[in-house]
Design a protein that fits this description.
Helix content: 55-70%
Largest sheet: 2 strands, antiparallel
Number of helices: 9
Strand content: under 5%
Number of strands: 2
Strand order of the largest sheet: 1-2
Radius of gyration: 17 Å
Distance between the termini: 44 Å
Order of helices and strands: HEEHHHHHHHH
Shape: globular
Amino acid sequence: MAPNYKAALKAIDEAHAQDPKKVTIDGTETPYELHYANKMTAYLDKRSPDASDVVKLAIRAQHFRRWEVPRDSYPMTRIGYHSWRTYLKKRQAQLVAPILQENGYSDEDIIKCRGMIEKQGLAQGNADTQVLEDVACLVFLDDQFEAFEKEHDEDKIIKILQKTWGKMSPEGHKLALEMHMAQRSQELVEKALAG
């Protein structure tokens, strides 16, 4: 790894470590966004083990300082949710750019990283953005889905799973189907895929 990659990764993780929300993993309390970033990297290693440093940094920084803009700072409606997500993507990309710049990355690399975090080009088949989308969907299924499904009715969950599946590539689907899930979660995934 080039020194600039290590320094940029360290700066991103130092920000993640400031997240006041904590989770306990294997008996150790960890800032949630640092846990999330580690999960993103773990799934990137499965999805695209030869990913470039820029892709690795975009994956790591996908939720950069997200806790600073809580969900309830926007209306608790579908439109409010989408407005919040759109704002976050732009903000996260904007905040990460100076870290890459300070660590010697080119303008082209910074634009590429920002584009991935903002999910640019996904509908047009941008391969790197698709990798980020796959990884984010895999982390949702692995790390968040079990708690999420307990808060919503089955019809809504199935629709969300179908949307999630539709965002993923065949490589993402393969990894999702290999994932170990709780029985109830597995049943819901099977219902969603059955249409």
